[in-house]
């Protein structure tokens, strides 16, 4: 497994996402990414537990409509080291391989990935509808931004070393978060 020092840390290589207030309680975060990999490969990165751990989280469940699909974050900090969180329970709202994966999650609201062919690659339209305090919105958006950057690396055969994520990538998250704060001002 490749370590973080082989991963790109240029978090500005992708455009910033957007924030849309849907109603007084719900906010939608939207990010779009173009990847050189075909939709089937991106789908596998979103749904197969051995692949999701390379860039996102541990997954427990299957990508079938109505099935459970629980998530466990791997980049949570405790006493200076990366640790895993508890499982956050979820369900698959809709799964149409390799085009749509929509999840409902106890911690992260509704997560939707829409994949479409783009030449020989894939366009990923990613949305996360959340109900969180105002100060958490841009933090969440920056988090998804960094995870989707990690997805680019995973598609190239690399993997995040989660035990060292805070040392290696928290500064990148801070950079991206700062860009979102500046764009919103």
UniProtKB/TrEMBL annotation:
Annotated Activator of Hsp90 ATPase homologue 1/2-like C-terminal domain ranges read 36-156
InterPro entries linked: ASHA1/2-like_C, START-like_dom_sf
The family database entries (Pfam families) matched by this protein are listed as: AHSA1 (PF08327)
Task: Report the superkingdom from the record.
Answer: Bacteria
SUPFAM superfamilies attached here? Bet v1-like (SSF55961)
By sequence similarity, the record places it as follows: Belongs to the AHA1 family.
Protein name (record): Activator of Hsp90 ATPase homologue 1/2-like C-terminal domain-containing protein
